Amino acid sequence: MQVCKDAPAVKLLKLDTKEGVASVLAKSVTTRKNKKLKMVNFMKKQSPLSPEKLEDTFAETDYIIDEKSGLRRVRPYYFTHHKFALKRWLGMSVFDMMMKEFSLHISTPEKLEQTAERGYMLFNMEIINASELKNRIIKDGDMISTKDHRHEPPVRIPLPEVIADTDEFYVVNKPSSLPIHPVAQYRHNSLIFLIAREYKVNYHVIHRLDRLTSGLVIFAKTKEVAKRVSKEISDRVVRKQYLLRVVGKFPDKAVCDKSLFEISAKKGIYRVAKADDDEKKVKTALTEFELVEYFKEADQSLVRAIPKTGRTHQIRVHTQYLGCPIVNDPVYNDPLFGKERFVERQQREDITEEMAVNGLTKTKNWGPKGYKISEDDNRLDMDFERDPLW
């Protein structure tokens, strides 16, 4: 994050240097809406993969190829995360927001206070002390920055295979385990970071695949192509197909038109909507299915799914609702969803957000950084001793 010539306040006041910004702040200049300018008004987030930032981004860390376990690991590194206030944060104190939204990284109030005392937290580019955390109320336009010692989860070693490289498109076969964008704990172990580092390319993402899903990912080489194809996808001109292995014998053909309800925005977990659900959290969804092959000995089916809408986790929720959850789905085939997940057109409907966040098997007995700690965990030394706070 740096003073940027394209930031609104910089363009308005025709400033070029940080010294100019400091002098303006000292004079308490106000905007046309009579709001006092803050340091954050002169800042603008830049893509970490932009030509100006690329060298600094890759200098943060490097990959460790662990041939024994077949995993690509990221050497732990320090990272400062800047985030402008989200709509759901407005009116909350910084303390409440951090404990609700970032408990994975800052697990206790004591650690949050330690973070602030060490100068690892900024509010609108100014250090915020521990004593201020509960009194600072977040407003629209505010920015919160935190310094973190990151320990990214590992992904599988194979690099994405380049399928096509044309004048308009760049297409790769994404391996399972790799998210497309930086998300949650993933940054360098994401598809766009990996191909930028290994293949020296940075194009426009047109669509997404879940982290655990393998398959073709299409990048557009220009904004115009990205806009055109995105519209074709939203207009359902583009037809997408998925192959999935599910529990049980799937019917020859099936259609599920059940809308989806967001149980947890924090974790992105859904279920089929009920009549009394909050309409703001309900999205329509439609998926067509057909059986490809049934494996009797394993009691599993290979199924082709053709989504007619593009909702998050749509196929995963619909297969569970039809009584045949995806075999290795760590969320929707979790015991948390009960035996109802194996019964056609039934579901467990009493799952709360707290249960969804804390009750999944995959998150029980995990360490402070989200890694499962067990005797057979062969992960590399993650360097926790380097900085006890993180």
Automatic annotation (TrEMBL):
Entry protein name: Pseudouridine synthase RsuA/RluA-like domain-containing protein
Q: Which reaction does it catalyse?
A: a uridine in mRNA = a pseudouridine in mRNA
InterPro entries (alphabetical)? PsdUridine_synth_cat_dom_sf (IPR020103), PsdUridine_synth_RluA-like_CS (IPR006224), PsdUridine_synth_RsuA/RluA (IPR006145), RluA_PseudoU_synthase (IPR050188)
Where do the Pseudouridine synthase RsuA/RluA-like domain residues begin and end? 169-320
Which Gene3D superfamilies does the record cross-reference, listed alphabetically?
Answer: Pseudouridine synthase
What are the GO MF terms of this UniProt record?
A: pseudouridine synthase activity; RNA binding
GO BP terms, alphabetized? enzyme-directed rRNA pseudouridine synthesis
